Records
---
Amino acid sequence: MNPDPPPCMTRRQFLLKMGAGAAGTVVAVRLGDLFVGRVLAQDAGRTVRLAAYPRRRIGSLSALQVDTPVEFSYPGDDPLHKSYLVKLGRRAGGGIGPGQDVVAFNTFCTHQGGPLAGVYQARHKVLGPCPLHLTTFDLTRHGMVVAGHATENLPQVVLEAEGDDIHATGVMGLIYGHDRNIR
């Protein structure tokens, strides 16, 4: 004779279900924070929104020289919003322009906010090493960590070219020191 199954769930089952439910709620709330603003796409009646960043002219393609970074501030004027616009001379992830080699990145390390302005290494197309813990970021691969303590890519400024003008339109990644990039 088979014993009857227990009438309620075990403690382990309860904890697993509660943990999965809580994690799902946190993910849903954070995704809701990210997708507010302009409509990105509509698919099967569902609207996907991209964070509403200001569109700002930050330079011109013809004024850029290979491996000479140009400093600008985006998305706001907060000191932590300082970024570099740079023509790498080789194709890069997220690059714009005829050679898809113009990119922009925030200049604060994602590990502990070390300043990266002035540490662009033209030979390797990297930003770094960070003066705090030597993290280095590959600008040809969306700011991917090459070495060091950081675990997050360098925030990449989304660019658009309109004729000769370069416009910043968003940020991929969280800028150090903020719980969200736009207020």
Note: The first helix runs from residue 11 to 34.
---
Amino acid sequence: MTRRTILAGNWKMHKTVEESAALAASIAAALKDKPSNNSSAAHEVVVCPTYLALDRVIAELKGTSVLVGAQDMHWESQGAFTGKISGDMLRALGVTYVILGHSEQRAYFHETDETVNKKALKALAEGLKPILCVGETLEEREGGVTEKVVETQLRGAYAGISAQDALNTVVAYEPVWAIGTGRTATSQQAQEVHKFIRGLLTSFYDSETAEAVRIQYGGSMKAENAAELLAQPDVDGGLIGGAALKADTFLGIITAS
């Protein structure tokens, strides 16, 4: 099965609203006459700005095939949850994707496998597509428990999600030790874990579903290593951090794909 590559830029807590709009405009202009702006193109491009900039970025990208994602959401539709954003609020803006379970949410804001699952179920119910993040720390990799950690996180994330709904999810494998550290997993290391994840999805559902779900690499992808990583049979895209904060470096990855 040929899976459509998905390249998602996670802007994290960077860029003011005006800066975000300018970056989105630059990406839109560069892709305007490219094949990537065709819905039948081999890859899908997503940008994930801060909540504050979502509306402006969506406006800047109107008329292009570039989609917009949010960086998180709450599992309730409304309530006394100061500082949180609900799925229906995101959907009303025109958001398509939402990142859930990012390693920084797990490390700094007490995200758990249970809360990731609650958010994923709610996102799907709202018609959003979750990008479900899993991955191990350096200590866990050196301790030989990468597969155990990834399986626990993935099993938790997909609890109660039907095979049909799983088709509207994306998995992002984040080797935490390769995020913002300058270290990158080799293409072989990435492929090994991606293949393991696809095997887990097969055990959760069936081979047809597992073959259809896209698995992104989320550990310091850049133009210099994108082609080699994306050439791996189970690496279906990238969840891109620092390299997504400038139009030229993000476009370099898109070109390499």
Note: Confidence is low (pLDDT under 50) at residues 35-40.
